[in-house]
Amino acid sequence: MSIAFDDATRVFHLRNEHLSYLIRVLDNGTLGHLYFGSPLADEASYAQFISREFLGFDNRLGDPVPLEYPTAGIGDYRVPAVSVRQPDGSTMLDLRYTGHRVFAGKPALPGLPSTYVQAYEEAETLEIQLADTPADLEIRLYYTLFSDRPIVARSARIRNVRALTQVVECAMSASLDLPDSDWEMVQLSGAWARERHVVERQLRPGLQSIGSLRGASGHEHNPFLVLRRPTTTEEHGEAYGLSLVYSGNFLAEADVDTYGTSRVRLGINPEGFAWTLERGAEFCTPEAILAYSDAGLGALSDAFHALFRDRLARGVWRDAPRPIVINNWEATYFDFDEPKLLEIASSARELGIELFVLDDGWFGRRDSDNSSLGDWSVNLTKLPGGIDGLARKIEALGMRFGIWIEPEMVSQRSQLFTDHGDWAVGTPARPRTEGRNQLVLDMSRPEVVNHLFGVFSDLLGHAPISYVKWDMNRNITEPFSAALPPERQGEFFHRYILGMYELFERLTRAFPEVLFESCASGGGRFDPGMLAFAPQAWTSDQTDAVERLKIQWGTSLAYPISSMAAHVSAVPNHQVGRVTPLQTRAAVSFFGVLGYELDPTALTQEERIQVADQVAFYKERRDLFQRGRFVRLRSPFEGDGNETAWLTVSEDRRRAVVGHYRILNRPNSGPSRLRLRGLDAAASYSVSVWPAGDDAVARANAGVHGGDELMRVGLLVNSEDPADSRAAGDFAACLFDLEVA
Ligand code: DGJ
Fold first, then answer.
1. d(CA 420, CA 426)
2. Could you confirm whether 458 is annotated as catalytic?
3. CATH code for the domain in which residue 109 is found
4. What letter would DSSP give residue 420?
5. Interstrand relation of 82-85 and 166-178 (parallel, antiparallel or unpaired)
6. Cα angle vertex 105, ends 100, 110, to 5°?
7. Strands 325-327 and 355-358, sheet pairing
8. Which of 3, 82, 645, 726 is in Cβ range 3.0-4.6 Å of 634 for a Cys bridge?
């Protein structure tokens, strides 16, 4: 790894074994983007890379250059990375290089989560200083190159050095110019209960974007996109991945100009954003992660998974094996009392489940979703011994105890609202819109954050609580903070997120041994910002196994399996009414952090035997399921989507588990083979089938097979035997357990 600056050509070359990133200080001092892609030899300057492809505009810069951090008003008519309204009302900026420094390691971002290093040798950082003299504005661009990852982490800081105030109206975390537009844009989009489906489109002239204006990253689009060549597959070809370490309003956009060049930008959504900088004040953007792969989407995902799992997630739970939970939500909803919870817990304990999570409904007068958020004192009618009493009884059963909270919200029917109605977000003289019968607390206000820290540190300090599910069930309407002056209302959304991060930071610091899981009506805020505090997230309220295939597949493009909480629930499924086999539900949930979300006392004896077997199977391979390398094999988004397959393989490639899923059973469809990847071609693997059976699939695959054979020929996944086919039915799953013989 090195970050070199050639004094003669004024080219910066960030280079490691996976990538090169080249920036040049042009003759007039402007910063031009030269290249980002496969590594180039170290010695050459590549100054000639200022590309003639970027045509079509007369500008103040001389060459029609691709700018490294573009501004508006200087003749580059594409979308800018930064825009600042100056005291005279103008917004154009003409940024010129003033200096740079390179240092070992990686700085933290003030008030914002970011990736980090544990030793200085893990990364080098380049800081480039730019200035616009008439505006008296300084911008510092940061590029961290990790020694052994195909990743550059970027952020920018904008500083007003003059007396009068200036207003930042757009501040992207990264902008990247590419000399052509022969790319497919891959995004993770959806809605509640069908989050992060893979959506692809070819880049076309003009703007194409995804984003959020909801105050949270949202169910609809994830702050992540990939540009891949049309020929790129899981194994081959070029792809860029861009991810924003942020949980609020974002924009990810590609701008293709008339000559077919592409600009991609990623950052806080400029819509509704305006940040006032007094003299000497600085604005810091969130961090953007830029990854490059010339070995397909699989390698791109590997890079994101390892970074997010090992250098974004923090604390003891980053590496610790995650417990198998039983969550009472779908078992009881709001209708429970202590005896019922203890029955669920003790029944789950007998099955080997490790941690009981008490979900919504334990506080105030919360018997439905229309009251009590904000009144975080236990409902003694339901739980006469309090949280402490229940937690101790759960611990006495040999389980750990976890609890659900929704800190950022308030119900109008609550004491908190009666006492502090002004803490709820709302625009003056306009009615407040409720979502799920609740309002949002103004997290931009320090007194709200302090209050919540007091309430939840009290809760966590007075009961043996090992796990917290931090939920957030509505987006923001009537955005406004009573604590901000009129000219600063454009700061509200970002200040909300900064306040939420501050609360999370304080709680995780005060209670480092607690495992936090984030949640937002399922996966409505499943983003890298949240992963920095909570190493796992409730992937989706959708617990149906068939629907989960798409959700978990899509999520895996960016996020490691250690971040995906996946629960086995009851049938008919509560979201879609589908009845799938218990083994299929488990076979999907295994590929993530396993949990159960059903009433174990309602299981038949045969089902209890199955669940106990599932729990034992998972525990025995927990490291593989939570920290293995996840390899996507057959996509639910391709063809008719009837089959999905993936595997997880240990780092030393000695163990793997393959999951194969078939939605509808098709008559007489003939046998088919599934070729594996990621194994050791030279090793021999003993293969067994789970659940154990004696059908043609089990007979054909069980035994010892070479890694080469499994990768080149594959496993038999569909039996041609009519009797097997009848027995399998719809929604079938089969796992193959591989271990070096
Ligand atoms: C939404 C979550 O996604 C569910 O799992 C559950 O915790 C409910 N909220 C409780 O209100």
1. 13
2. no
3. 2.70.98.60
4. -
5. antiparallel
6. 80
7. parallel
8. 645
- Establish how many alpha carbons lie within 13 A of residue 667's alpha carbon, considering only the half-sphere containing its beta carbon: 0
Active-site annotation holder among 527, 541, 680, 737: 541
**Do the beta carbons of residue 655 and residue 738 sit within 8 Å?**
yes
Nearest-angstrom CA–CA distance, 416 and 367: 17
- Indicate if 42 belongs to the active site: no
Q: pLDDT tens digits, residue range 439-448?
A: 999 999 999 9
Ligand 1 pocket residue status of 690, Cβ below 6 Å? no
**Structure confidence at residue 59 (pLDDT):** 59
pLDDT (tens digit, 9 = 90+) per residue, 42-62? Answer: 878 888 776 655 555 555 665
Ligand 1 pocket, 36 CB below 6 A? no
Q: Do 39 and 108 belong to one domain?
A: yes
Question: HSE-up of 10 (CA within 13 Å, CB side)?
Answer: 16
Which of 195, 360, 539 maximizes ligand 1 atoms within 8 Å of its Cβ, making it the mutation to test the pocket?
Answer: 360
The Cα–Cα gap between 565 and 522 comes to 10
Per the domain annotation, does 495 fall within a domain? no
In the set 177, 471, 527, 680, the catalytic residue is 471
Q: Which of 141, 77, 148 is nearest to 288 (CA)?
A: 141
Per-residue tokens: 274: 């305006």
Q: Give the mean pLDDT of 523-549.
A: 98
Mean per-residue pLDDT, 367-371: 97
Tokens 């300057």 sit at which residue? Answer: 45
What is the pTM (predicted TM-score) of this model?
Answer: 0.97
Q: Which domain holds residue 286?
A: 2-311
| Residue recorded with tokens 């000559």 | 259
CA distance 196 to 218: 10
For residue 97, what pLDDT band results from cuts at 50, 70 and 90? very high
Q: Does 473 contact ligand 1 (Cβ within 6 A)?
A: yes
Q: Quote the CA–CA distance of 598 and 604 in Å, as a whole number.
A: 13
Q: Would residue 431 count as lying in a domain? A: no
Residue labelled with tokens 């090169």 = 20
Do 725 and 599 share a structural domain? no
Computed over every residue of the chain, the mean pLDDT equals 95
306-331 per-position pLDDT tens digit: 999 999 999 999 999 999 999 999 99
Q: Are 519 and 595 in contact (CB under 8 A)?
A: no
Amino acid at 17: E
pLDDT of residue 552: 98
Long-range pairs, 645-650, Cβ under 8 A, ≥24: 645/674, 645/717, 646/553, 646/556, 646/591, 647/676, 647/677, 647/678, 648/561, 648/591, 648/624, 649/624, 649/678, 649/679, 650/623, 650/624
Which atom of ligand 1 is nearest the CA belonging to 538? 3
Model pLDDT for residues 108-122, shown as the tens digit of each residue: 999 999 999 999 999
DSSP notation for 671-723:
-EEE---SS-TTSEEEEEEES---SHHHHHH-EEEEHHHHHHT-EEEE---HH
Residue 493: inside a domain, yes or no? no
Q: Please name the amino acid found at residue 647.
A: L
Which residues pair with residue 687 across a beta bridge? 703, 738
Element (H, E) at 656: strand 655-662
Would 80 be classed as within a structural domain?
A: yes
Q: State the burial class of residue 29 (Cβ atoms within 10 Å of its Cβ: 0-12, 13-18, 19+).
A: middle
CATH assignment at residue 380? 3.20.20.70
Q: Is 265 within 8 Å of 79 (Cβ atoms)? A: yes
Q: What is the DSSP letter of 319?
A: T
Q: Is the CB of 362 under 6 A from ligand 1?
A: no
Give the residue from 611, 577, 581, 573 showing the smallest Cα distance to 594.
Answer: 611
DSSP structural state of residue 363: B
Report the distance separating Cα 451 and Cα 443, nearest Å.
10
- Residue 136 shares a structural domain with residue 237: yes
Give the total number of structural domains in the chain: 3
